[in-house]
Amino acid sequence: MKHLYFYLTVLIGTLFILSGCNDEWESELYTRMISLKAPINRDDVSVIYLRYKPDDEKVTFKLPVIVSGSRTNDHDYTVRIGVDNDTLNFLNIDKYTERTDLYYKQLPENFYEFPLQSCHIPAGTDVAHFDIDFKFSGLDLVDKWVLPLTVLPDPSYTLNTYKGRQKALLWVMPFNDYSGTYNAASMYVYFGDNTTKYMTASTREARVVDENTIFFYAGITEELAENRGDFKVKCEFLEPDEVSEIEDTHAEDGTSLYLKRGKLILSVENPALEFEVVGEPTYEIKEELDIDRPHIIKRFFTLTMEYKYKDTASSENIDFPYRCKGTMLMQRNVSTLIPDEDQAVFW
């Protein structure tokens, strides 16, 4: 009898546990909360690369809005999203203290707009997108422009405040066919008339001016210098003088590779530089397939140039003349399998 009682007790307990587990599995385990998907980099912001378009032509970024939970969302949500005017200030002070020239700047309203002020997440969907239309014409990328967004409170949903997941700090980075980080080890910078001893900067970051123009900083100007904007060199890519198709037996049908050569126009906005172009700057763009990954096109950029300028800002009494001569090189890898251009480029 004691053994029977024991077995019955175990059986009833097991059924109770299984029943409890089954109910738990069928119900939502967590509080459903609203988040913005904007993965941060080491600077606590999210870099978004968007194709530069001329004039007032818009480019749309789709910011993912997420409903968390252990089961598929079964409610309709209308999530209100607005500009966060506070977080960026705290981040700047914490990260850069008194170096205000390095602060992230809030993107002015004339460079973006929201087609809708809210994002609708229908039942049966865990992720929807909030559209943001950007216009980049006239945006000076000497500064770091960030659009800070936040989910606005509403009694119809709960914010996911864990590690600020209800916020998104979008560092807007327009790109064109020529922008990116160039290797500048072969761009020799001579002081004055010296022709033997030279200096180099390991890299030069080229940012967008317009659809065919980039800018970089002259010579060995530090890219974090307070007066870096005074040393901007614009580099416009003219239509190529030579375009030839490269045959590659590994290329899939519909994939064409090209070699392009053309001229560059160098210019500056600061007359104090006494900028002078020597000779005729040129560019070459050559494509090839990655041997191990044939869906990847490797695009090689070679910019060849020579120019002179004067640094009148480093000293009140002395002008420092420089002559720069050589090449800047960049490789851009692009996947042919990804239709979205901003995601196809390996940044």
Decide which structural class fits the backbone: mainly beta
- Residue-averaged pLDDT: 89
Query: Biggest sheet, open or closed, and with what strands and sense?
Result: 11 strands, antiparallel
Radius of gyration based on Cα positions:
28 Å
- Count of DSSP strands: 21
Low-confidence regions: 15-22
In total, the number of domains comes to 2
Proportion in β-strands: 35-45%
The CATH homologous superfamily of the largest domain is named: Uncharacterised protein PF14274, DUF4361
CATH level 1 name of the largest domain: Mainly Beta
CATH topology of the largest domain: the name is Lipocalin
The number of helical segments is 3
What is the multimeric organization of the chains shown? single chain
Helix share bin:
10-25%
Cα end-to-end separation = 74 Å
Shape: globular
Order of helices and strands: HEEEEHEEEEEEEEEEEEEEEEEH
- What is the annotated CATH architecture of the largest domain? Beta Barrel
